[in-house]
Fold this protein.
Amino acid sequence: MNKNHEPLIRIAKRDAMVWWKAYLIRIVSVILALIVSAVVIFSITKLNPFAVYGSMYRGAFGTTGKTWNTIRDAMILLCISVGLAPAFKMRFWNIGAEGQILIGGLVTAACMMYFKSMPTVLLLIVMFVTSCIAGALWGLLPAIFKAKWNTNETLFTLMMNYVAIYLTSFFVDFWDKKQSHSVGIINLDTGKGWFPRLFGEQYILNVIIVVLLAAGMYFYLKISKHGYEIAVVGESENTARYAGINVKKVIIRTMLISGAICGIAGFVEVAGVSHTISTSTAGGRGFTAIIVAWLAKFNSLTMTLISFLLVFLDKGAAQIASDFNLNEYASEMVTGIILFFILGSEFFINYRLILRGKHKEVAAK
Amino acid sequence: MTLSSLISWIQGAIIFGTVIMYGSIGETLTEKSGNLNLGVPGIMYLGGIASLASTFMYELNVPNPNPVICLILAMVSAFVASALGGLIYSFLTITLRANQNVTGLTLTIFGSGVANFFGGSLNKLAGGVGQISVPVTSSVFRTNIPGLSSMGAVGKIFFSYGFMAYLAIVIAIVSQYFLSKTKTGLNLRAVGENPATADAAGINVTRYKYLSTCIGAGISGMGGLFYVMDYIKGTWANDGSIEALGWLAVALVIFTNWKPKNAIWGSYLFGFCYWLYLYLPSSISTKLANWFGLAKTAHMQNLYNMIPYIVTIVVLVITSCRKNKKSQAPAALGLPYFREDR
Amino acid sequence: MENVTKVFGSTVANNKVTLDIYSGEILSLLGENGSGKTTLMNMLSGIYYPDEGDIYVDGKKVAIRSPKDAFDLGIGMIHQHFKLIDVFTAAENVALGIDEKLNLKEVSARINEICEKYGFDVDPDQKVYDMSVSQKQTLEIVKVLYRGANILILDEPTAVLTPQETEKLFDVLRNMRADGKSIIIITHKLHEVLSISDRVSILRKGEYVGTVDTADATELSLTEMMVGKKVILNIDRPEPENPVKRLQIKNLSIKNSDGVNVLENINFDVFGGEILGIAGISGCGQKELLEAVAGLQNTCDGSSILYDSPDGESAIELIGKTPKQIHNLGIALSFVPEDRLGMGLVGSMGMSDNMMLKSYMDGHSFFLERKSPKKLAEKIKKELGVVTPGINTPVRKLSGGNVQKVLVGREIASAPAVLMTAYAVRGLDINTSYTIYHLLNEQKKKGVAVIYVGEDLDVLLAHADRILVLCDGKLNGIVDARNTTKEEVGLLMTKLQDGGEGK
């Protein structure tokens, strides 16, 4: 009779796990994911998966140019993740990075078009500031409603994405005099408002901006009073009230920062990478970055690593596509599989399974 | 506006609306169990590609494809593939306790990756983008009721669609009935409202969550099937439009206040908004376009397309401001439930 | 029930309890907080499974593994926290989880039938969110009866009811008794025990004390059985040295979100250099009282809490100020809340970071000053003997006693003028408890006004200088802890004095 009572497997919370064990589990999960992906690739294409992974490496780091492209894209992804980190640490589900990036990129593009006569340095500063403000405003709106009426921010920010997308689309059409649904490369002739080459390299400024932001965010969250407040609010609003923290103020302030950094990501993408604006400027990276920030537990260093891993997969898959005559979406598939495994592995870090047998002596009486 | 353009507006809205109606009914069922699955776009992708891939291979390898087999193959493969997507989500969030939002977004990435990967491969197999065709299957899905559809305006408005447009309405009504009138529906709603209470009443919370998420995903996947077979007439395009439609389906869930019956008119309303730019009386459109300084009236489309999302935000804000308990959003939506070891 | 034992971790909630219930009777289950009444009943209703012992229903040995098993045996429990779904109608709530085809009309008809039989008043089509507390409770009872229960367990049913509603409930219970049902009612209120029940069973600290016929019992005899013999505790109690008035609480009233009064017109003074114990059945407004002083509660108009600072400046009104404003005025209020990890500490942070929870905003720097909290953490770890792998280990991972040491240590370290503690020793072992008593005494000697909300009367009697007793949100008396008896305090806790004012 008692035997039936106790379930076959019980789940219990685990005490703190040694850090290297936790990392071991994560690494094992990534390896498992790569094996599964390899099986999938092999079963579809009958290609040697190792050759496939080899060419992935070549795709990401094969030439200096490719390496720089990998760095460039990783920086953008990192920038967005850095922007999302404070919001998510506060347990504010900012699914709206996509829109915040677009709005930031949109005003950057507008500045590039309308302020052609400005000196380059001033123009860069103006673009930086306006993209900050635009992104911040896009993040502010859901934050106000969340603070005031506890409006569901997940769905609110999600909807704001599409408002931004159609607004971008509207302006693209508005600026596009050739009616080709594209603004083309902005200032192709003058390069006005483009990031200047520093030390002979094209993407140095991108790296500087993003690394500064990432480092700044690291310290902001770790050693500033604001960061402390964010951590307390994210843990328990009750504790925050007990500690005398103005929860509404913290929510609004944090979302302003989060939106602003996502806006900067749009600025870097438009002025420093693509020099154009379209509805695909954000390209789903606002969603990917959520996963980056979440898995990294908002630590800038870990976010950098994960950003590089995902961009590596992306670049590598593009290479496979051309090497083996496949298509580039293989990367999204592999990314999805790897993320599923990492998400699942967290369970084994936080919980342990207890089989029924171990408690028989108590249950049996 | 002429009658004929009004009719084609209605037709466009209904076809557009049907895609997101499937998506939103499926998501409503999922959300009623307390699972906020942001993987709807991915699931619709999975449904779409599964139906296309299976029927394409069938039509390619069989000299005289049987329409009935095409139909069954498409629907079963779409449902199974989407439900599998729901199963992945369920396993990760319910059993492995992963975060719902993150898992949902990952499912969207995965689904669009898988779909576009195979879609691209199929394109290549068929000899180029847009060259895929599944004539038999597509025509089965696009067959309308003989006789009725040629009954002038009425026939065009009501009877000019493939059977899946009607099936969507049937599913909406059945889901509504299921949720509000049946034992199982009542239990399901209890799980989404207050899983602890449902648990105490002897309801198997885990089983309800798994089943409603998987079946919900299967229904959402029908939206992808309809999009591929009917909306774009049996081909594949890597243009991300399924993703946009998927998010619109999520918005529609909020707009309908978690009631499948509202999805019937809500989805058509979204469809009307989508096609507004083509059919709004040109005098108004031109005036607006001039006012915004647009070169082409068609560019107003972008602003019209915003309407469903803005309306959804307004609905969201109003329901939260009124703090009314009558709102149909499941109280435990997005929250995990684990009966912790006491 | 025979020899039923339930163990949670290292605490024994019920130790070899034996209980009989006959049909057609009302049995009261009496006991202090934490005496294991609810645990015992949860084993009958299938929430817990006994570690030892057997349960017999109608003479047959049964195994109750889930609430469903309990229903099948005709046992139904009405929990203190209602298990109802707000957006459902009464009928839908009743139908939930029953294995039969859903026919709400039929359900409504049967609900009306039950209502008529026992004199309830439930509208089957009313939504739960439109119901009053007593209506919800009625619905819970209907729900249980609908499932054909013959044994009803009510866990503190009157705690949320007005006297009139209580009378109505008792009438219904008597009707059910006449119908041959067995009813177990858990309560603290002695006059209710005497007016409603046929027999009374008493639990104390998880042990079964005995059962008496109500006819032979008096309030005094029941209190004696409930609180037990006075235990001599070896807690120091230094004489208060020239106490000074520190807080004046006047006309304090608080309503909860349902608009029910949780505190009504409370007046008392708190003195520096003494320990003011607060006794009362749990949920009588203790939590709200402390939170009001800490600036965490919205109070009704006319409430006033005046603070007289030790340096003799004029009194400051605390009502209407946020915790931050109070802190910025230089008023050192310390508060050890009941919910340690959900309110007093941040579970995911280490000791060190928790030290600055209330002081992190001091100074003008944008950055945190981490050196002194770290030093403080080291000091508390050493002086209070906190067992932790390191001062950066998340406090959530520490044991309950160590968590409490961290919290109390921090609150004392801020050199408070007023120190409020809620259930400071709950769940702690003897040694840690004595450490806490000792710390509070030290504060008292320093002239701090200590407010000690406790549940163990022995401790309150041995430790506090004065004891304020709350009953049902009203001040039911303030007694001198040195010259009172356990029975006197016990009576004040359970029976409202006329006019609400004691000695």
